[in-house]
Design brief:
- The complex is a heterodimer of chains A (537) and B (371).
- Chain A has three domains: 38-147, no CATH class; 176-290, no CATH class; 308-469, no CATH class.
- In chain A, 49% of the residues lie in helices and 12% in strands.
- Chain A contains 17 helices and twelve strands.
- Chain A has a five-stranded antiparallel β-sheet with strand order 1-2-4-5-3, sandwiched between helices. Chain A has a five-stranded antiparallel β-sheet with strand order 6-7-9-10-8, sandwiched between helices.
- In chain A, helix 6 crosses helix 9 (263-271) and helix 13 packs antiparallel against helix 14.
- Chain B is globular and about 65 Å long.
- Classes of the chains: A alpha+beta (537), B mainly alpha (371).
Chain lengths: 537, 371
């Protein structure tokens, strides 16, 4: 056995080192240098791309020397190319003879912001396919790429998933650059660092890591970097691909990375010392490390006053538990612990259930499954049909099922409350995990009542305590308990009382507020300042 | 030994939950009637003294569990022999607590459910937790500590508001003099639950700050002792001595008396919640000690392989140790404290301490400097 494990280990190591080489080394083995002849280059380009129709190649001439210009239609800003590249090419008549032509084109003709020299084909394709315009000149075995990204993109719109009453209304879109800009607009500090890499052997998707240097924990940053570099798959279509490739544990229904479409949330988390991962083509930005309590913090909590937000947060936690154990409590109480229901209510429930032929568990299962199907169907249905289905669903759940004695009215109430409670979890990934666990707890309740539910919750607690997100215990700051970081768990302290950053994330630089931040009426402030001045003198 | 590190707070929480554990359910010296709480307080004092013995042993060998240093003290073979018996002792106690727990459930709520099934569910949960490691167990303890205190304080206020507490039930104090109390302390209250701290000799090396062991453990014993005493006083004050003596589970009887505003009543479920948490922590700590002792003594690489077999062994033992609850509780109150607890909690540790003292008298300074 040990030989086998050794062999596996060796193979694993070899594979890992291969990955590093492939990603870190820009010169791949089949990388060819660019030819001196423009026509040869054009031919090579067309051959490599199979004469794709969106590849635009335009011959140009500058002085006596021929050249060519290539870009991908749709990825570039057409107006920019015609204004700042083509126009200056056609208008330029004089060329100073002694200077290097390539340098001349670079300095004087191509009037775009970012410009680069390219010497081999892989880099050229990278540039071309990410929206740059490439210029070949006869007699030079290098090419020039000018930044002309453009084309149609979705504008910045309001968030569609994580809504808030108060607070910024912009959301990320599918463009990496727009997304990083939205974050940088909120953190105007040179310490906000952006690292970019390409992941996906075919899709070559840009992935950016953002963090605030000096606050974020260096070890975690390195861990994120390592895990991203380790990814070796053909495609990254959405940030979900990245999430599933870098999370600590696959076999858990709880999300160990946080995702959001709100730049304000990302900005506040970056300042707390977390690390954001922006994936090109995905409007959801990942932040790590994620802890359990974070999934109960909605952006609204911080924009309204602390007493109200605390109340709402407690409500949200209660709703989480209702969504988790609502139906199972009903099953347990009606099957095993009738004595715990107040007598009148118990009689009412018994009267309702008189004509229902199924045990409570089956009844609950039927209703829950029906509801889950309706919910899933409502998500996928075309808008026009959606309304019809919701009417049918309401009738099926509400009216007909009760009249046909398939379920009792009490069950309808329980299932509806559970379903609505589930929507109050701010992050969908956590809500959906509860949906799954609910069924397990229902089964346990059907077998052993409250004891089963408690055993289920206990196993859940053990599981949660064993999880880690990028090395940070998932249940922090509850377990391990940290007294300094309780200001944002159950009770959201006033903003001026947020004295520390979460210490389980950022090490060292954790002080957030200056001293004496508590607002007070003016007279008191004057007195205090006089006092302190008096002390000084 | 596993490569785990726990904080002082986590150890404290484990000590408190462990000590309160099943004692608060079944450990009352009911024969003393209204003086039961005095015996508990004296037992706590004795428990602190006993812990100081274990603490001295820990100071001699701060990086080793009991099963390892017993080999240094008594020599390789005798040491291993004693270590092996300690493993059996821990496993037996785990089985006893598991049986307590199962009997309580079958006696109160699950009269139709097989005992084996109820105990199997709990032991499987524990096996899962121990498979994840001791750090996870400590974190779960921390998480549930808040829940337990929430229940305890809530229940306390509900009892007061229901007007159930009649402190006159505590009188007359010392009706029969001190002798019965001392007898009860020595035969029962000292060893259960306070002497059971001996199991922590297996996990003390995990603490990340060894200098805090004494403070943490003793404050944990004191807090749990006070809680236990308060629970005892409340039980007597609520039930009166007559019911207190007869009730198999005084705390359950007390809790089920709560009735407030015709709405808050039948709070047995709170009791059950406490029962499961306490049972979990206590059985888990004993099982872990047995597992880690076996790992250490038989030099297994990884304790994870042993969690399932030893867990199932404990489950089967719990099924076999008694025919029924009466036999089980009689053994637990009469036989076990004198013939099992006394040797393992008091006599052997004292002998070990004596021998260790003579062995280490030359490098005494070294041992003290760790403190």
């Amino acid at each position: 056995m040990s030989i086998l494990s050794k062999m596996l280990k060796k193979k694993h190591q070899r594979r890992q080192s291969d990955n590093y080489r492939q990603i870190l080394d820009p010169l791949k083995p089949d990388d060819l240098p660019i030819d001196r002849d423009v026509q040869m280059n054009i031919k090579h380009l067309q051959e490599e791309m199979g004469n794709s129709s969106d590849l635009v190649i335009r011959q140009i001439k500058i002085g006596q020397i021929g050249g060519a210009l290539a870009y991908i239609d749709g990825l570039v800003d057409g107006k920019g190319i015609s204004d700042y590249i083509l126009e200056s090419f056609t208008e330029t008549k004089q060329i100073s003879e002694e200077s290097d032509l390539f340098q001349f084109v670079m300095d004087k003709i191509v009037a775009v912001g970012s410009i680069r020299t390219i010497r081999n084909w892989n880099a050229l394709f990278d540039a071309l396919l990410s929206g740059c315009t490439v210029i070949f000149l006869n007699g030079y075995s290098k090419a020039l790429s000018g930044e002309t990204r453009g084309g149609d993109r979705r504008p910045i719109q309001e968030p569609s998933q994580q809504l808030s009453i108060r607070g910024p209304k912009d959301a990320f879109n599918e463009t990496l650059r727009t997304n990083t800009a939205l974050i940088r607009r909120r953190i105007k500090s040179p310490n906000l660092w952006v690292e970019t890499m390409k992941i996906g052997t075919i899709t070559q998707t840009d992935v950016a890591i953002l963090y605030v240097k000096g606050i974020a924990n260096e070890e975690i940053i390195q861990e994120v970097r390592d895990r991203l570099h380790r990814i070796n798959i053909d495609s990254i279509i959405d940030s979900g691909y990245v999430e599933q490739s870098i999370e600590d544990q696959t076999f858990t229904s709880f999300p160990t990375t946080y995702h959001t479409e709100r730049p304000d949330v990302v900005a506040s988390q970056l300042v707390e010392g977390r690390i954001a991962i922006v994936v090109d083509g995905s409007p959801f930005v990942l932040t790590v490390p994620a802890v359990f309590v974070q999934f109960f913090q909605a952006p609204d909590d911080y924009y309204s006053r602390f007493d109200l937000s605390t109340g709402i947060r407690v409500l949200r936690i209660i709703a989480f538990f209702i969504a988790l154990i609502g139906p199972s409590l009903y099953i347990a109480a009606t099957t095993f612990h009738q004595e715990m229901i107040p007598t009148t209510l118990a009689i009412a429930i018994a009267a309702q259930r008189e004509n229902v032929p199924f045990p409570a568990f089956v009844e609950a299962l039927v209703m829950e499954v029906t509801f889950e199907i309706l919910r899933e169907a409502g998500l996928r249905l075309p808008r026009a049909v959606g309304q019809a289905v919701s009417i049918v669903g309401a009738l099926v759940i509400g009216q007909a099922a009760v009249q046909a004695n398939i379920v009792s009215p009490m069950m309808v109430i329980v299932v509806s409350i559970t379903a609505i409670a589930n929507f109050s979890t701010p992050v969908f990934a956590m809500a959906i995990s509860v949906r799954l666990l609910r069924f397990v707890l229902m089964a346990l309740a059907a077998f052993t009542g409250f004891y089963g539910i408690m055993i289920g919750l206990m196993i859940m607690a053990i599981h949660l305590c064993s999880l880690r997100s990028f090395g940070v215990p998932y249940m922090a700051p509850l377990a391990p308990f940290n007294t300094e970081n309780q200001q944002d768990v159950f009770i959201r302290f006033p903003i001026w009382a947020f004295k520390n950053r979460p210490q389980f994330i950022s090490k060292g630089n954790t002080v957030r507020t200056g001293s004496n931040q508590k607002p007070a009426p003016p007279s008191q402030n004057v007195k205090e300042s006089q006092n302190s001045e008096g002390k000084k003198s | 030994m596993e490569k785990a590190k726990i904080s002082a707070r986590q150890l404290f929480v484990l000590v408190v939950l462990f000590e309160m554990g099943s004692a608060i359910l079944v450990g009352y010296p009911v024969k003393l009637k209204q003086d039961a709480w005095i015996a508990i307080l004296l037992g706590m004092a004795g428990g602190i003294l006993l812990f100081l013995v274990y603490y001295r042993l820990f100071l001699f060998y701060p990086n080793l569990p009991l099963t390892s240093y017993v080999q240094f003290i008594m020599g390789k073979w005798i040491g291993r022999f004693i270590g092996f018996f300690y493993i059996i002792y821990f496993a037996y106690l785990a089985a006893r607590v598991l049986r307590d727990f199962g009997e309580l459930l079958t006696a109160t709520v699950y009269t139709q459910t097989p005992l084996f099934f109820l105990m199997a569910l709990l032991i499987l949960t524990i096996i899962y937790a121990l498979h994840k490691g001791f750090e996870v167990l400590a974190r779960v303890g921390e998480l549930y500590f808040g829940v337990v205190y929430f229940i305890a304080i809530g229940g306390f206020f509900l009892l007061i508001f229901s007007g159930l507490i009649h402190l006159e039930n505590l009188r007359p104090i010392l009706e029969n003099g001190l002798m019965p109390i001392f007898k009860s302390v020595l035969t029962q209250n000292l060893t259960f639950p306070f002497g059971e701290m001996v199991v922590f000799t297996m996990v003390l090396p995990y603490l990340n700050k060894p200098e805090k062991v004494k403070k943490v453990c003793i404050s944990g014993i004191i807090l749990s002792g006070i809680n236990f005493t308060i629970a005892c006083v409340i039980n007597i004050a609520t039930l009166g001595t007559g019911l207190f003596i007869r009730s198999p589970y005084p705390l359950l009887s007390t809790v089920s008396k709560i009735e407030l505003a015709n709405f808050i009543e039948r709070l047995d479920v709170l009791f059950m919640l406490y029962l499961i948490i306490a049972g979990f922590i206590k059985v888990a700590v004993f099982t872990y000690a047995a597992i880690i002792g076996t790992t250490d003594l038989f030099q297994f690489q990884d304790h994870k392989k042993l969690t399932l077999p030893i867990g199932l062994f404990i489950l089967l033992t719990a099924m076999m140790i008694a025919k029924n609850y009466a036999e089980h509780i009689e053994e637990g109150l009469r036989v076990v404290p004198i013939y099992v607890h006394w040797p393992f909690q008091i006599i052997i540790p004292l002998i070990l301490l004596g021998v260790a003292y003579f062995r280490n008298r030359h490098n005494q300074q070294e041992a003290v400097s760790i403190k």
